[in-house]
Design a protein that fits this description.
Blueprint (H helix, E strand, L loop, with lengths): L10 H24 L8 H29 L9 H29 L6 E3 L3 E3 L9 H33 L4 H6 L1 H7 L1
Antiparallel strand pairs: 1-2
Bound molecules: protoporphyrin IX containing FE (HEM) (2 copies).
The site of one protoporphyrin IX containing FE has 22 residues, from helix 1, helix 3, helix 4 and helix 5.
């Protein structure tokens, strides 16, 4: 139920996947919207505060997700050799981009030496600050890597729909429920 098998994803991996998909899409929209706000808008400070807080929580969840991914078996890929290779490379790319987006966001926020407050519950300390042009270089990396992440995730979602509706593979169903692959096993 909780763990993965060679035929399907367990509840832990499924929860990680959908929780982080929701967070990534939400953070992208929030990030885009908040950077266009005027100085006197009540969300001018509140928006980035929520964005950074959710972003740091996602960074912690993603670290746990990657550890879980490395110690657990993974279900066998479906489709042609090319599709399986593309999926594998695409998934690694998604993990790398996730880390790049979040680490660059962290570096923008800690450029002046202050830590990042997470909903005032705790503070993530600054470890690298005052590098030359840190905020603007990290800001450029953050924007371009976030856009690339969203484009690849959109291609990834289309591939999942192709597997489900065209090739009639179990790929999407087994990412929706652990019961699905147990029934088939
Ligand atoms: C997957 C997670 C994330 C996504 C998809 C995301 C996306 C975005 C986007 C699209 C923007 C607007 C960029 C622009 O218009 O230049 C933005 C801005 C920003 N993000 Fe993120 N972000 C994520 C995580 C984080 C994290 C973890 C932090 C910090 C702890 C962070 C801090 C910031 C800051 C400070 C800005 C404002 C930058 C500026 O004013 O130029 N983000 N983010
Ligand atoms: C920002 C959004 C998303 C991100 C960052 C993301 C990321 C990922 C990653 C990294 C994996 C690989 C899991 C692993 O091997 O450890 C994965 C698997 C998967 N994703 Fe997503 N995903 C997103 C959105 C979606 C959406 C919208 C769908 C469906 C329409 C979807 C369907 C799937 C499916 C079916 C798998 C399992 C593939 C398999 O069993 O081989 N994902 N996703």
């Amino acid at each position: 139920m909780w763990r993965n098998t060679r035929s399907g994803w367990g509840l832990v991996s499924i929860s990680f996947h959908w929780l982080s998909a929701l967070a990534v899409i939400g953070l992208f929209i929030l990030g885009w919207w908040m950077t266009g706000l005027g100085y006197y808008d009540p969300w001018y400070n509140q928006g980035p505060w929520v964005h950074r807080s959710i972003g740091i929580l996602l960074l912690m969840v993603t670290t746990a997700r990657i550890v879980w991914r490395l110690v657990q078996p993974t279900p066998k890929g479906e489709g042609s050799r090319f599709e399986r290779l593309a999926a594998h490379v695409g998934h690694i790319g998604l993990y790398v981009l996730l880390l790049l987006v979040m680490l660059s966001g962290y570096l923008i926020s800690t450029a002046n030496g202050r830590g990042v407050s997470v909903f005032d519950w705790f503070e993530m300390p600054a470890v690298l600050s005052n590098l030359p042009n840190q905020a603007s270089i990290a800001g450029d990396i953050h924007w371009y890597s976030a856009v690339t992440l969203i484009v690849i995730a959109a291609g990834h979602a289309l591939a999942a729909l192709k597997h489900h509706f065209v090739s009639r593979h179990a790929t999407l169903s087994r990412m929706l429920s652990p019961a699905y692959s147990r029934r088939r096993a």
